[in-house]
Structure prediction request, 789 residues.
Amino acid sequence: MNNSVRNGTHEFVCEAWLGSSSGGLLRGDDPLKYSTPLLLLLISLVSSLSSVFQALLRPLANVDFVTQILAGIFLGPSALGQNIDLVTKFFNTRSFFIIESFEAISFMFISYISTAQVDMGVIKRGGKLAIINGFSLFLFPYVVGAIACTVITSNIRGTVAKNKPEQLHDLLTNQSVVYFQVAYSVLSNLKMLNSEPGRLALSSIMVANCFGWGFFLLLITFNSFLQHNYSKATYMPTFTKVLLLVGIVVVSRPIFNWIVKRTSEGKKLKASHLCTICVMLCTATFLAETVGFPYIVGSVALGLVTPKTPPLGTGLTDKIGSFCYAVLMPCYVIGIGNKVDFFSFQLRDVISLELLFLIISAAKFAAILLPSLYFKVPLSHAVIVGFIVCIQGIYDVQIFKQLLNYKNISQEAFGIMVISAMVHSTIFSTIVKNLHGWVQRKHITYRRQTVQHYEPNSPLKILTCFYHRETVPSILTVLELSSCMSSASSLSIVSVNLEELERHNVPLLIQHHPGPIDHAGHNDESSMSSSRRDQISKAFEKFQSGHDLQENVSVECFTAVAPSKTMHEDVCTLAFDKGTDLIIIGIEDGTAAERRLCRNVLNVSPCSVAVLMDQGRLPDFKNMGTTMKNGSMRINVCSIFLGGADDRETLAFAVRLSNHPCVNLTVLKLVDGENVSHLNDVIERRLDFRTMEKFRQDTMNKHNVTLREVWIKEASDLVNLLREEGNNYDLIMVGIRHEESFQVLQGLSVWSEIEELGEIGDLLVSSDLKLTASVLAVQQQLSSVVEEA
Prediction:
């Protein structure tokens, strides 16, 4: 039985305590009268509905935020909440107390986890454009919103959605804010974290957030002074707020450092350390409420103080992220959905507020577009960033809920704002997704970017990328063999050191400049990561310095930090921008991450691709000294030619290597018993014939080049050939793709372990043959990325 007592403006509701757990239906208990079964049922309902909506809205972008809120709205007064019996059972007074308690706890953890992934260094790396964009994004929408609010309220009599003019001002002020956490989530879902528009958007929003938080703190202090008429009582609240923020930094940082030191490298957080962090989070949010801050300030401040290196940073998401999003988030969206009632909306109010919201979105768009175009940012990128900053998410909804709790807006206005945020986010996210896809499709070249077709008097442009530092020496050896002693045929190299998004929470593309090592530029990374980058860049600088006399080699070094699934975008974008003829991917053991990278690059690369797997035979470049240049060291290279575009590209690159004085090149042309090609395609046969004729002409006077025709009828003959002669070579070069009808390759792909190397390449590195020769598998530029001008 409920007893309701009113004391002035406050209403107290008293309920008999029945316990948290039900005795069961068989004992005559109603489980829904107990807190635990009721909570579990509500979580199950929201999770199920969210999954259904997610399946229905999968073609749209940013579905996570939309489907979660939709599930809450569906259970609220806009849909199922119209059923009185259902409301009585599920959404009684007891359930609301439970939901609201978990709602606050949910957002406390979510705000901490998402903020703990914020890398403040992105502000510095964004440069002057990010600062200008951020300031414009902070100020311009606010000013435009204030003007629009004044104009609309002066032309409309009465209230708008039961909001007074001063309430509309608060509403628009919060609408003009952009949150970094929302943009990070959207870009992560769209796999745009390591794209150029994504980086610019993240850095610009981070700067805008810094201006916003500073303005928020100044506003609170100023209001405190006004309320107390500049008396002594003013200073104590301000002092305690500042003391809390300083205390969070001073107290929490040593504890986090202690946790990092006590956790072995590569290990995850211990349960005791996780409990310590949860206690710190609850304490920070409690103290924030105590000194007069919203509780979210405590969780955000602690998140910013949290180190971004493992095991913290992304490690926290792995530990408690699933619990927050699977258990706490459903409680949060139920509370939101119960405040949204479609039947209370008035068309006049919806049109008025929507007009204001569109004006704010246009102001955000212009605040990014205009400065970006002034700084020569491509129009497509500027437009994408402009739409990104217009996307709203769960953070915006929470701020709307705070305004509702403080009665700064009406419940009708809150409902309209939530629906508007959902609709706008879906539209803008879909636009961003399609625009980004269109920009990616623009990576279509108007010339053949291959080794076979490059201009002899122009530099051969090669991009190298690798996960592991151990693959660098073999890559440098191949580059050394590719360099020509004549400056008329130079070599232009772009080196990309790939790092997964583990030690960083914002994707990076760092260009390393030659000269002294600057550790100050890597304050956000661990010393181990910086040392690794320095070693790699120094190795390539040493390679370049070895060719200073000939002046035929130029080197650019980059480090790309990105999620494994989208890392190939950095590689392909750089290859497109630099106009490279060949991408060389160095792999060590053929791990899942390496294979994914190879597969993605092979599918979308704007130029030819070579996959290098060193098995120990290639000499280490840094230990060679002058032996290679003097010709005292001999490196035996074999190129296998069956026929097709990839084999022609392989042969062209092999001829390039044969120009080096210490290379002995053997070309094995595989033919059938009648001394003809295995190809069925007449056009490909003709192209192969022309290629071989050119090869004979180019190597006619080269004593270090040998051409052998080997009769091969079936796969067993090929296996025997490689087993007998494979260890005679230091490097074996093969094509990746061949005609499916090749009889000689039938059955080889059945037991393939590394399909990205092709049938023959996979066979060469298989444990069955036990070969020690390194393998370079080549794929010629895809015809789909070439558009004739």
The mean pLDDT is 82. The radius of gyration is 32 Å.
